[in-house]
Amino acid sequence: MPARRSAHPPLAPAAHSAQTQIERWQRLKVASLLFIAASIFLAIAHATREIIVPFVIAVFLNYAISPVVKKLQSSLKIPRLVSTGLTVASALLVAGLIVFLAVVSLSGAFRSLEQYHHRILDLFHESALLLNRWLLPVQVTIDPATLAASLKKLPFLAWARSVSSGVLEFFGQTILVALFFVFLVAGTRLKRPAADRPGSISFAVNDKIARYLAVKFLTSFITGVLVGIVLAILQIDLAVLFGLLAFLLNFIPSIGSIVATLLPLPVAFLQCGTGWQFALALAIPGLIQFIIGNLIEPRIMGESLGLHPVVVLLSLLLWGFLWGVPGMLLAVPITAVLKIAFERHDITQPLARLLEGRAQ
Q1: Are residues 232 and 146 in the same domain?
Q2: Which end of the chain is more exposed for a tag (fewer CB within 10 A), N or C?
Q3: 273 and 357 part of one domain
């Protein structure tokens, strides 16, 4: 029986090579266009960060309240309008409380500046005397009076004002965030649109990002409260401020918890020296951060966002460069949303796999 011929004869080697080159050229054009679009987007995001950052924070806050609203509807049978109003009012109350505590803590820090300045001078004087005893065999001496005079010329007050003004500016943006947040919630339909079904981008974002933000807020809140209570029991100054910073910095993966643990140490050292209070001010908050961040949070979080740790670190660097500290706070959810969007299109699926840490 004669062999059946194929309806589509194979391409000649030259034609196959030409088609392969065309496909490669098309992929190169798509990659170039994506690179140009990403560059323009990042440049615009950096130039408009004063407006964009509060808006993006409000968007993610809107996602964060979604699980709470659903829980109130399903468990307590509260209408969506009422549950949304209660959740928004609670969120605004918490934000206002955070800003109030930050302002009160910073005002207390200003009142203690002179005391810390004198304490620093005393420590340097004692260190100079100790060094003179050590350097006595080589006949080298350090004049404590000269060292103290040089230290007095350092602008400690100007530095403190610069840091505090930056912190207050960050908290001052909460007013703009609150306005965006209220308008976003007010513009949301009372009933979920039909597009919010399994398989849609909106459903994926609501399912993953909303859960991530809600769990992250809960664990960060518990971390901040516990750190503040521990430092207050140890009678460390600015315990409330350090608790607030622990709450905020906990949204920054890995780096934030380390910074939050180390921040109270200079104040604890100036106040207590290297005694048991200093050791406990380092050990107990560090233990709290470790237990909540590495044991409790993964159990509550369940399925992760699927981002490779190196990608998380690079996103922290990128968004931190573009938007500063708020960018580092938003880096992980923004990258997760981009990954979800990339997964929906064949052209950008390789980028989604790259964010997961899979080269193929």
Answers
A1: no
A2: N
A3: no
pLDDT in tens, the chain (360 residues): 454 554 545 545 555 566 677 767 777 777 788 788 888 888 888 888 888 888 888 888 887 777 777 777 777 777 777 877 888 888 788 877 877 777 777 776 666 666 666 677 677 666 666 666 666 666 656 666 666 666 666 555 565 566 566 666 666 677 788 788 778 777 665 445 544 555 566 667 777 787 788 888 889 989 999 999 999 998 888 888 889 889 988 888 878 888 889 988 888 887 777 778 888 998 999 999 999 888 888 777 765 677 888 888 888 888 888 888 888 888 888 888 888 888 877 777 888 888 887 765
Residue range of the domain that includes 344: 305-360
What is d(CA 91, CA 70) in angstroms, rounded to the nearest whole number? 15
Q: Check: CB of residue 99 under 8 Å from CB of residue 146.
A: no
Choosing from 300, 315, 334, the residue where a domain stops is 300
Rg (CA), the chain: 28
